[in-house]
Request: fold
Amino acid sequence: MTDPAEQRLLRRAQVHAATRTGILDAARRVAARASAGELSLRGVAAEAGYAPAALYGYFASKDELLLALAADDLAHLSRAMRDAAAHSEGRGKLGAAAAAAVLLLRETESLAAASGALSSPAGSGDAERLFNGRLIGALKVLSDAAGNPANSREGQCDTVLVAATVAGLAMLARSGRLEALGFSQDEILARLDQRFTN
Reply:
């Protein structure tokens, strides 16, 4: 059994995590109404039912909030891709993972908005490290779905090419430009699977 001090610390950590999750959920609702790029800490605080100053205990800036939201979305994206690939056979694993990614990327703007929040050159803040870790996790799911272990520079490059293709496909599909170009999402995903699956 833990002592009372440990129990208080555990309870405090649980409350902090639950509040942080509530703030991210409020940010997601605000972004759904407007856009992720238009988020403000004041607007998110109002949506979450907190004073704006209270959010600074969780996120130091709008950029940190955007990165946390995008990192959360990357975790959802990785799970969806992993699940889709697990329910597919053979060469179709990459196409299934990519289709799941396109579906989620069409519905969220947080990853595109987070690109403006990333420092250049790469920073070392906690939010950015979390985002980078989740991005690497999503790339690993794509690499595994392709049967292409990214243990060489060439394999890593192929994985980044696949990820860039999926992100671009989502953008084209979301804007209606893919159909305007005369392509279907399924056609492009089948070609992607054919090109990059080992």
About this structure: Residues 120 and 128 are 11 Å apart (CA to CA). The chain has two domains: 1-59, 62-196. The two ends are 51 Å apart (CA to CA). The mean pLDDT is 88.
